Amino acid sequence: MTQKKRIFSGMQPTGFLTLGNYLGAMRNWVALQDEYDCVYSVVDLHSLTVRNEAKDLRQRRLSLLAQYIACGLDPEKNILFMQSHVSAHAELCWILSCYTYMGELSRMTQFKEKAAKQQDNINAGLFTYPILMAADILLYQTDLVPVGEDQKQHLELSRDIAERFNGIYGNVFKVPEPYIPKVGARIMSLQDPGSKMSKSDENANSYILLLDPPETIMRKFKRAVTDSEAVIRYDVKNKPGVSNLMSIYSSVTGKTLEQIENEFEGKGYGDFKTAVGEAVVETLRPIQEEYNKLMESKDYLQDLMKKGAEAAGRIAGKTLSKVYRKIGLA
Ligand code: AMP
Ligand code: TRP
């Protein structure tokens, strides 16, 4: 019997998931759960790089776990856990930070973007964030890391750190590969299709949340920025808004871009936006129902967190022990 390949990924409990998170990441995770040995974390330590109220964070990390399951991640098939419940993450992060260069971290575009956004709180954690991410991945001897395109640079860094460490100490870590889906890899803002759909956007009309009620979803799509040509055609350069709506529609219906162009030939943007909105509402409906049920079963979620942390801790502990031995701390 060949062993299944290992997958690791995680999301920060910094807010509610957007349609971008779902189509670019989460749905992909669900598709992988049968074929791979998957470990999915709520990376709560990462979210400390921005300021949180304790009670909000406590609520949001539980909510994110519920959103994972509501989106279709089966807790029986996957290891689902809170990053902070497995102390090996913080421990390995420190060790790896001694094998990572300031220059490498300075090149991270996400650091530059985030630092620009929170100039009053450019904390060291924001800078060393990718090392914690490398620790997350390397602890599980991960083969593949499904993430959106924006995380590719962090993944490259994880690979570099793993190779550097292995170069000194022998084969300690598996060198992970990125796993980036083509369709839905980057869902753009509905208000500014030049930037990605993000839950931290100030304009709530720019994103669709997984938990947005149907009326809100329809309204946001109706207000989506398009262009004045009134032709439904995929052309990211000249028609970024329409192309983004087409990607979304394609992602949720499975139709090809060509089929979509044919479907809406001779029709206006109004019809098209309604169709996109309705398709998204139908996709999210069962997720929202399941989410509401889960949030009423807090005990179940607590129990699941405990089991997840135990299972994750067993795997992570093995790697960490090996690291300790190799570097002379054991
Ligand atoms: P974030 O919301 O930035 O913490 O991202 C969580 C995960 O969702 C990462 O794997 C991202 O790459 C992915 N993601 C976030 N926003 C988008 C988007 N607009 N389109 C596609 N994937 C996204
Ligand atoms: N940095 C990732 C993001 O913002 C979240 C993350 C943390 C992650 N650790 C990870 C993703 C490990 C994949 C693997 O989306």
Low-confidence stretches: none
Overall morphology = globular
The CATH homology group name of the largest domain = HUPs
Q: What oligomeric state is this?
A: single chain
- Give the number of domains: 2
The level of helicity is 40-55%
Query: What's the CATH architecture of the largest domain?
Result: 3-Layer(aba) Sandwich
Largest sheet, in brief, is:
3 strands, parallel
SS strand fraction: 5-15%
What order do the strands of the largest sheet run in, or round the barrel if closed? 1-2-3
Order of helices and strands: EHEHEHHHHEHEHHHHH
Question: Pairing-aware structural class of the strands and helices?
Answer: mainly alpha
The CATH first-level class of the largest domain comes to Alpha Beta
Beta strands, count? 5
Bound molecules: adenosine monophosphate, tryptophan
What's the arrangement of secondary structure elements?
Blueprint: E1 6-11, H1 19-32, E2 37-42, H2 54-70, E3 79-82, H3 88-97, H4 102-106, H5 109-117, H6 124-139, E4 144-146, H7 152-169, E5 177-179, H8 214-222, H9 240-253, H10 257-263, H11 269-295, H12 298-327
Parallel strand pairs: 1-2, 2-3, 4-5
Helix pairs in contact: 2-11, 3-6, 3-12, 6-7, 8-11, 9-11
The chain binds adenosine monophosphate and tryptophan (TRP).
Q: What are the defining features of this structure?
A:
single chain, 330 residues, mainly alpha, Rossmann fold, Tyrosyl-Transfer RNA Synthetase, three-stranded parallel β-sheet, two-stranded parallel ribbon, 5 strands, binds adenosine monophosphate, binds tryptophan
